[in-house]
Amino acid sequence: MLKRFFAHTRTALFRWNFAIILFLSPFAGHFIVTHGRKFQTAWLKSRDYYFSISYSAIIAMILMLCIYGISFQMNKRYRDKGEIVSWLLCQLLYGVLAVIGVELLLATCLFWYKGHWIMETAFFRKIFGPVVMFILIVNMAYMLFYAIRAPIVRYKVRYLPPIPKPIKKFEKVKGDELPGLIYRDAEGNWSLSLEGKRMPWLETLDSAQKKYGKKICFRGQRHWLVFGKAIADFDLPTGKRQVIIHLKMEAPFVLETSRRTSPRFKKWMDKYFRKKK
Question: Per the UniProt record, which residue ranges are transmembrane (predicted)?
Fold first, then answer.
């Protein structure tokens, strides 16, 4: 989990979010420090005001980074698989309750450094409520962000082919005899020829996509890869952004692209048939 997140820190998405967090942290720190008090211009000449803004901004930045990391992991683990209830519960448990625990730990350490016990201060009476509200708002913002950025995609299975008998020796597909469809199910990876012949596929879908390139095949979903020569037609259902692909042979399930891949599929089909002509 941590390895995946650290790899994610090198992406443009993380850099944009980190820049936004850095930008919002001073405002969050100012809100926490001045909450319940009328702003006075004399504060701008006080070192204590800037000191309070600084450590409050650092704590707000740590909390937002924690919520971002948790939201990223929960989205990958549960929401991408359509497990919405598990996604919401884990987001509540880790993104809200666990982050509140982090806030209490940081606030306790800060008051201890300043020579105070947190229970003897006005933290829970004046600051704790706005901090919890801030944590809830950030969680809702990231959940809404992932809901808009990566809509949930579900595909309908028309029927599953019968489970084949155990095969002792797999038959490899030659380069000049490319299949029309490569897909993955509970039994493993399979290829489907234009004649409808189903055979075990010894490579992963990722390696097949890299091997044959994007010019002759298209990765519509994580579990299937279709070749242009096998496509007979495709439909655009009314009121949906997904594309349903019809093959020249009988497919084991309905080939439906996601909302994100539909525009790329249309461009790919246009280029593919333009080259064929």
Answer: 12-33, 53-72, 84-107, 127-148
